[in-house]
Amino acid sequence: MKNTRREFLKLAAVSAIGVGAGRLGFLGDAPAHAGPLPGVANFEEGLKAKHWGMAIFTAKMTPELIEKCRTACHTEHNVPDIPGNKNIKWFWGASFEESFPTEHGHYLSEEVEHREFPLLCNQCETPMCVKVCPTQATFQRPDGIVMMDFHRCIGCRYCMAGCPFGARSFNFQDPRPFIKHFNPHFPTRMRGVVEKCNFCAERLAIGKMPMCVEAAGGALVFGDLADENSDVRKVLREHFAIRRKPDAGTSPSVYYIL
Amino acid sequence: MLEKALKGSPRYWGTLIALGMIVLLGLGFWLYQLTFGMKITGLNRDVSWGFYIAQFTYLVGVAASAVMLVLPYYFHHYKEFSKMIILGEFLAISAVVMCLGFIIVDIGQPQRMMNVLLNATPHSMLFWDMVVLNGYLFLNIIVGWTSLQYFKNDMTPPKWCKFLAFVSVIWAFSIHTVTAFLYAGLPGRHYFLTAIMAARFLASAFCSGPAILLLLILFLRRLTGFDPGKKAINRLAVIITYAMCVNIFFFLLEVFTSFYSNMPGHIAPFQYLFTGIDGHDMMVPFMWTAVVMGLGCLVFLIPTPVREKTPALVIGLIMLVIASWIDKGLGLLIGGFTPNPFETVTVYAPTVPEIMISLMVFAMGGIVLTVLWKIAVEVRVEVEGGNLSMVPPPAAEAE
Amino acid sequence: MYNAKYIIPGIIFFLALIFAPVAYNMGKGVFEVKPELPKDQKDCIEDAQTMRDKHMQILNEWRNEAVRDGERIYVNSKGKKYVKSLTNTCMSCHTDKTKFCDRCHDTVGVAPYCWDCHNLTPNQKSPIPLAENGEAGGH
Known about the structure:
Chain A is α+β, with helices and mostly antiparallel strands. Chain A has helices spanning about 1-15, 40-45, 65-75, 95-100, 110-115, 130, 160, 200-205, 210-215, 230-240, and strands spanning about 50-55, 90-95, 115-120, 140, 145-150, 170, 195, 220-225, 240, 255. The chains are: A alpha+beta, B mainly alpha, C mainly alpha.
């Protein structure tokens, strides 16, 4: 409130003396974490796959590491920090019970019971959100990534009802005042549209791994599930992994190694 | 015939002005929502559909009121319903208008609504719901208006109009089925994921829709002396009673499947609604009210001598409407979204602005209904004589 | 004619209403808008006339191709390549929206909702504050 009023006064003052927006406070030098602007050459080195997927070494994902990944993701994508239950989440942590409610685990090993699990959009193979969306604002790319086209979303929230994983968030209000760490190279959202994790499609396009994978330092393995020689397939061959709510029939592309 | 809506008693204009005031008041709240976003509602990340969509779902049921008259009239030549049919069709128009209103106030980017047509997506049930609802709206407008026009000119309606009336009967089943399919195909929502959902919607629609219609007709009879005939009223009451019995039966089927199978996901919504989970028991008094009202209404509706007495019928119908509204207009949506996908409880309750915006949509439906019924009643008075004063109606009220 | 006393004034009022803008602009001179062009750049992605006529179609194609098809490189008519990005490509040169975009848009009375999400320049320090978003948050 206070902040909005200050910005308003500033704007009013600026327009009153007839100075252009060039001197407004929000313009100027980009934050240091934004990095250099990717060019054509970067986009020509984009990563390609038949079916992007992820394996998570859950034992390595400490609450601190989850927080580090969350911050990296939310900073990259301008995800706002909105308090309360109208919040927006792309990457977050939850207990075993919340992450795998269909397991109804009794006599869980204490370590697993108290472990925090990183949650994100499962990038399902047969995504319900894509099936129910009336405008194809949510769609599946040939490489398996379930994407949002924010230009098209009408905010009906049918995808949120369809998603069995609670991976989607609705912008109940203008998210911009709640963005703590700002990345000028990635757009923000407007109120009235639904958003979720995009498997860093914008980073894969310039040949980089997703933010969370980079931040996790090996605890998250990302790669092509259709390629049996990929890192992710190798890791899955060697470790027992489960997926969240497999009986919902959506076939998640995110695997949890317990 | 529109001119009949432009001349009326102070009472008619008073009603319209009062409803108009509610619309204006609600409009203020809607502008508030459009300006600040849906943060002014009680909706949240876990319960992302609420009061608006629940009212939409209930009103799809009300739109069915016409079909329980049109079907016996056209398919079985039950002529007793001839006087009521037009009122049923006009109530359907008003109900569908309200349905569309509730969709518009519920979406986050209403000005992009036409994207649903621009990017028509046949694998989305919402696309089909839009098709069948608008189709039903136009069918009722065309059939209702044309048959009233021909009635006014003392002619039998044309063949194509009768054909469209037949189509509208089949079509009415589609609006409930497709609306049920909105919910019944979602894998993560146990309360919705049931093959009987469409059948439940039909049963609930065929009792609550005609019940609201009959209550409004009895009210109209008191106000204007417009009498649809004792026989017609009794017959409609029988239809409502059967539908309510089936409705309750279907609900009990759900209870059996959930609890006998003992599947935790299917039991949890019932627990939340009827006993509360972890102390979150906001819905409990509502749901038990629905149980009492739903069973109680049958006491008034099943015994024929009781049902055929107007005061008892009115009490029974009001109880039925309350029970079915709580079941579908509150419980269905809230139960479907609680517990959330993490099997925890996020409490949802509508806020004051949300309720005011809903009142706006209801008042808009009220305006449409008042105008249309005014036209229908005046046309009948013009053709058959009679008056629209406050004089108590003859014989009919004597029982 | 029936009801001529209502109909004729009605028609006159209607005509007056639709020709009011014409009358308002009478004698105002030639319609001209001069957006400020980047001083350190000579060529846009296409020639000026194409940009003037078709920038909205190009942006619309860009957003569909970049978001939906993952095709993020634009090859212009001379074979030169650009990244399909409103903020990171267009606004890298046209650094001041108020002196470029707004000059025309304001004059012709259009308010595209690009800036509800997209940033004004790739060097922006913080998100565009609410007030800049226009009344009622735009779209």
